[in-house]
Write a structure and sequence with these properties.
By secondary structure, the chain is an alpha/beta fold. It contains 15 helices and 22 strands.
């Protein structure tokens, strides 16, 4: 496997001398690789390579750019098991979930391959006589992509594929904790025929590489996924120099369960949303708002399912849930469990690390009951396998509780009443809404993103994800034979 950074079609080890170790979070004695971290000087090299490659890539016909992505999808499908095993080993999620993530990335590559045949310009009537007007979308130039560790394959794909097919060149920074999966993406793009300089990857810290990217005037856009603390500061800095910016940040997602809900289905969806991927996804279910008539029966189902989960290394086919990604995230989750207990919530199950798994960053699936909307565990993003349950006696109260947090990514309701469904869809303050299914999930052809503190800028994926990486140009062609504009009124 290649290691290091990838610039202008070549792998190399930055000369910083600062080495980071990529460690398996399920077994901290398993070192996947060591990497020399890139520096601000390497950012300059990557930008120079991208700038040099841009004129030719911009002139490459859109369908041909799309065919590169289609070949990449084919290669990724052949290497599916290799990618999934690498992802599991460095991020920790179970192999079934890793395979699902790889397949989602392949779907995104296929979707954006087709976008090379579109680009969504319009022809529009002019108010002037003998004038043809239309719009075209053109690439921005060189763009910067900064991805998180929790989806180290899918998120880099859904950022890079639209940028590339639109005709841009890319400088990409993967998360320090999960560079190996992103390295496979670079290999696949190269094998698919992407010209040198179009996709450049730097393994480095946010403090140095990320900051240098945000400050670089050559980067016409920055696409970031990560924490609110980092994203808000990044947005201000990049916007101040006139760059386009999109930031996808936190979530605190709720499932409302009404008294007429199918409790078995609701429990299954909540369980998967809360504990799938160890709760380490922005769409994870972290809050349950249940009607008091059915709350007890629902909680019984949730606790029973949680206690039956098998924890262990994700590469073990019998494992149901893997570890937190590293010691820092593990400690954050454990701290929130203590906060919940200190606030008076009732810990029903979980909350500890199994002794048999002391070599990894494992936390038992954790459920709190008796949670009030004022508690921190109800309002703040934990990013771990912790579920908070509260009650609401009406849909109005449930909506008030669901909306009463700073985030607005996704939410769900379980009910058989159409009136409740439509009121929920109209009034809930999230960018994505689910009915009778989990809060998780996204599809290549559908926009992904949230409201309030969850995100700023345009949505990702779908047509919106492509539009972010383009500029709209309006064209007037006067064929009247006269220099002046002749208005119809």
């Amino acid at each position: 496997m290649n290691t290091g950074s990838y610039v202008n079609g070549k792998w190399y080890h930055p000369a910083s001398g600062n080495i980071t170790r990529n460690i398996n979070p399920a077994d901290t004695g398993d070192v996947i690789a060591e990497y020399a971290l890139a520096t601000a000087a390497d950012v300059e090299l990557a930008i120079a390579a991208a700038v040099a490659a841009f004129p030719a890539w911009k002139k490459t016909p859109g369908p041909e750019r799309g065919r590169v992505l289609w070949r990449a999808a084919d290669i990724a499908r052949r290497r599916l098991d290799d990618i999934a095993r690498t992802l599991t080993r460095e991020e920790g999620k179970i192999l079934k979930e890793a395979r699902g993530e790889v397949l989602k990335g392949i779907s995104l590559l296929e979707y954006y391959a087709g976008e090379g045949f579109r680009m969504h310009g319009k022809t529009l009537p002019s108010e002037s006589r003998d004038t043809f007007t239309y719009t075209v979308r053109q690439p921005l130039g060189v763009v910067g992509l900064i991805a998180p560790w929790n989806f180290p394959w899918a998120i880099p794909v859904w950022k890079s594929a639209p940028a590339i097919v639109a005709g841009n060149c890319v400088v990409f920074k993967p998360a320090e904790l999960t560079p190996a999966t992103s390295i496979l993406l670079a290999e696949i793009y190269e094998e698919a025929g992407l010209p040198p300089g179009v996709f450049n990857m730097l393994v480095g810290s946010g403090r140095e590489v990320g900051e240098a990217m945000v400050a670089a005037r050559e980067l016409r856009a920055i696409s970031f996924t990560g924490s609110n603390h980092v994203g808000n500061a990044l947005y201000v800095k990049a916007a101040q120099r006139g760059a386009k910016v999109t930031c996808e940040m936190g979530g605190k997602n709720a499932v409302i369960v009404m008294p007429d809900a199918d409790l078995d289905k609701a429990a299954t969806a909540i369980h998967g949303g809360a504990f799938g991927s160890t709760g380490q996804r922005c769409t994870a279910t972290s809050r349950v708002i249940a009607h008091p008539d059915i709350k007890g029966a629902l909680v019984d189902r949730l606790v029973a399912a949680a206690t039956q989960m098998r924890l262990g290394p994700g590469l073990d086919a019998s494992t149901d849930m893997g570890p937190s990604v590293d010691d820092r995230q593990w400690q954050t989750v454990m701290d929130y469990i203590k906060v919940g207990q200190g606030e008076g919530a009732r810990l029903l199950t979980g909350g500890t690390r199994p002794e048999a798994l002391a070599r990894g960053y494992f936390i038992e699936p954790t459920i709190f009951d008796g949670v009030s909307p004022s508690m921190r565990i109800f309002k703040e993003e934990i990013f771990g396998p912790v579920l908070s349950v509260t009650t609401a006696s009406s849909l109005d109260e449930a909506l008030r509780f669901a909306n009463g947090v700073e985030y607005g990514l996704t939410t769900s309701i379980f009910t058989s009443d159409l009136t409740s469904v439509m009121r929920f869809v109209d009034e809930v303050e999230t960018g994505m809404v689910h009915v009778n299914e989990p809060t998780i999930g996204g599809e290549a052809q559908l926009p992904f993103g949230g409201t309030k503190s969850t995100g700023v800028g345009e949505r990702e994926m779908a047509e919106e994800g492509l539009n972010f990486f383009t500029e709209l140009k309006t064209v007037f062609i006067n064929y009247s034979g006269k220099a002046e504009r002749s208005m119809t009124r």
